[in-house]
Amino acid sequence: MESKMLIGELASRAGVTPRTVRHYQQLGLLGKVEQESNGYHYYTDISLQRLLKIGVLKNVGLSLEEIQSVIDLYFEEPTMIKGKQKVLEILAKHLEEIDDKMDSLARFRQEIQFNMARIQLMIDEMST
Known about the structure:
The chain has helices spanning 7-14, 18-27, 45-59, 64-74, 81-127, and strands spanning 34-35, 41-42. It is mainly alpha-helical. Residues 4-73 form the HTH merR-type domain.
């Protein structure tokens, strides 16, 4: 039998706040959450595993939107290969975007250096 826990216990075990749990629940990141007639939401060990996986995925650089697209894949099959493959695709896209930004910044840096040198030359010519 799977244990049930209230939001405070879940948050404590995952190292997050209850507010964070509620937010992730609203986004659908925690999967199905049981609500009993007393109005309390009860979370399971799967909820805890999902919450911990969300933390790992955030730490590798995924946004919550990206995590939404991948989190269920981690719990579809025991090897989690589908989830890992999707994360690799997302990270490759991030890397490509970073490379593009770095190229753009390098060009901008060269333009600034050129303009600085040109202005300094004008100042030098006016000073002599």
